[in-house]
Design brief:
Blueprint: H1 2-10, H2 13-24, H3 29-36, H4 40-58, H5 60-69
Helix pairs in contact: 1-4, 2-3, 2-4, 3-4, 4-5
Length: 87
């Protein structure tokens, strides 16, 4: 966990902010853009660069895991959990 925090601390602040909003908070690129105050394309670019940097710093597994967890592109915020496990 300490390695992850160190890697996050080494990211540019704008990249870290975008990554945390999208990958951790589960916001869509559009919702994150509204919070940050920039175009959604800029958020996509920042998240991509942050994932690439984390992948280099921590190994590909983490970068790929963050990619899989990416934003909920169906709308802002997270989807509610599906207790049945069905897609």
């Amino acid at each position: 966990m300490r390695d992850l925090q160190s890697a996050l601390d080494r990211l540019e602040p704008a990249q870290r902010e975008a990554l945390l909003l999208v990958a951790v908070e589960g916001l869509s690129y559009e919702a994150a853009a509204g919070i940050i105050g920039c175009p959604a394309g800029t958020v996509k670019s920042r998240v991509s660069r942050a994932r690439d940097r984390l992948g280099q710093d921590l190994g590909q597994d983490l970068g790929q895991d963050l990619e899989r967890r990416g934003p909920n592109r169906d709308g802002p915020g997270r989807s509610p959990p599906n207790p049945s496990g069905a897609a």
